[in-house]
Amino acid sequence: MISITQIKQLREETGVSISECKKALEEAKGDFRKAKEILEKWGKDFAKKKIERETKEGIIESYIHPNKKIGAMVELQCESDFVARSEDFQKLAHELCLQIAAMNPTKATLLRQPWIRDETKTVKDLINEYIAKLGENIVIKRFTRYEL
Description:
Blueprint: H1 4-14, H2 18-27, H3 32-50, E1 57-64, E2 70-78, H4 81-84, H5 87-103, E3 114-115, E4 118-122, H6 123-134, E5 139-147
Helix pairs in contact: 1-2, 2-3, 3-6, 5-6
């Protein structure tokens, strides 16, 4: 029997809907770690389905390092203005700016880089998690980094 506490904890850790958390826990027979792996796989499958959808909304996010010597800007696109204005989407844009400022990637390497907050994930994995969470395709349209 899956408890509400388990579902709540999985939702808090993953940000995935309650119903999906419940399904994953049921499939994993209550094994929390396995349920997280199931949700990750489902998220990747979901992101693959969304990749062809057009992105025409989004935001531009910027970050200036406290030393005022490094800065980054990113144009992050999604499908709807509703998602573009969401706190989660804006958080992703900020995380991408931090990544760009810290790692100085090229356009070809950004998605393959380990994410600076969790090196077990790539930047592409991070974006796919947000695609699954928000239900829309998300694309980094362009970015730049400045350094004195």
